[in-house]
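Figure 3 (text version): structure tokens given as input.
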């Protein structure tokens, strides 16, 4: 199946295209990593075609973010991390893992220029403790849960790669 999609898929569309790209990119990259090393008979040309799909269609969309809410940004980060692992692309991995600092950094191009802008975007969350708060905590817990799921996938993938986000300095 990845062979067929790798040769036909050019983009996701509509207003939620960044979210679609994040969801599909995260799952497909992880699944492709398993298939690649499972001995399932995935020939080199099909692997290359799938790498090209991830590199040319998915990564450019997810590595830059969406200027949207936390669950979108986090699933896009998850997809970027998973794709960079599949592609063995350390530079893009580092870009996807960039640290926000003492308060959340606005997505490039979002127009959020000040701390007050960030607070409003975070549904009036004015403090940013190191533990227990997500961008959508003051919105609802369903979207917060989606984000936490993506965070856990990023943390586990990073741990497997030797970057322990559970105990290391994560900028708080």
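Below: residues designed for each position.
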């Amino acid at each position: 199946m990845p062979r067929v999609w790798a040769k036909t898929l050019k983009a996701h569309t509509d207003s939620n295209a960044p979210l679609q790209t994040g969801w599909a990119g995260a799952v497909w990259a992880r699944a492709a990593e398993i298939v690649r090393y499972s001995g399932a008979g995935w020939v080199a040309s099909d692997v290359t075609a799938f790498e090209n799909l991830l590199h040319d269609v998915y990564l450019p969309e997810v590595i830059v973010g969406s200027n949207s809410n936390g669950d979108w940004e986090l699933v896009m980060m998850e997809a970027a991390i998973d794709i960079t692992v599949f592609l063995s692309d350390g530079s893009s991995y580092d870009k996807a893992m960039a640290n926000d600092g003492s308060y959340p950094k606005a997505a490039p191009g979002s127009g959020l220029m000040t701390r007050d802008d960030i607070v409003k975007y975070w549904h009036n969350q004015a403090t940013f403790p190191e533990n227990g708060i997500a961008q959508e905590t003051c919105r609802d817990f369903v979207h917060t849960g989606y984000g936490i799921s993506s965070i856990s996938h990023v943390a586990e993938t990073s741990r497997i790669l030797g970057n322990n986000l559970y105990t290391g300095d994560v900028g708080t």
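The two ends are 42 Å apart (CA to CA).
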